[in-house]
Amino acid sequence: MTDTEFSIPHTDEVSPSDIRPGANLSVVNLSDADLTDAYLSNTDLTDTDLTGAVLADTDVTDTQLVDAHFRYAIPNDEHILPHDIVPEATLANADLSKADLRFADLTDADLTDANLMRADLTDADLRHIDLSGGYLTDADSDADADLPDGVQDSDTGTE
């Protein structure tokens, strides 16, 4: 996807040309944005609202995602996943501490050396992710989170 194809529906603060490596996109509303195939290495997404954003095949290596929000809306008490949020995304070395990753589809994502300290992983799909060297201290999940093989939920003691 080229920068002119990125969809950013809820803000005038950011244009498609701002979606690039090293950008400062902190505290920006990128909810429902389509950033498929974006290259956001070394980008600051601290406190950014990425609720419902599509980040499929997006590279956020070495990106700051502290307190970023990734959750989906739950209308009528029913969880709706209109699309995958970050399948196969490169999140290596990303700082996802305290990030809201509820209901996020992280299937096959590369989280090598990522910091997930105190991230909310409730109902997140973490199957087949690479957590080599990743930090999960105090990460919050529940029995419904799909954890990768060999990773135990600290609350339930189950994989």
Automatic annotation (TrEMBL):
Residues 1-20, 137-159 are annotated as: Disordered. InterPro entries: 5peptide_repeat (IPR001646), Pentapeptide-BTB/POZ_domain (IPR051082). This is Low-complexity protein. It comes from Haloquadratum walsbyi J07HQW2. The lineage of its organism: Archaea, Methanobacteriati, Methanobacteriota, Stenosarchaea group, Halobacteria.
